[in-house]
Amino acid sequence: MHFTKTMRTFYCVFFLLIASILYGNNADSLKAAIKKQKPGIEQAKTYLLLAKVYDEVENEKALYYGLSTYKLSKTFQDKELQSSSASFIGNLYNSLGKKDSAVILLNEALSHYAKTKNTAKIAATTYNLGRIYGSNG
Question: How far, in Å, CA of 71 to CA of 52, rounded?
Answer without folding.
Answer: 16
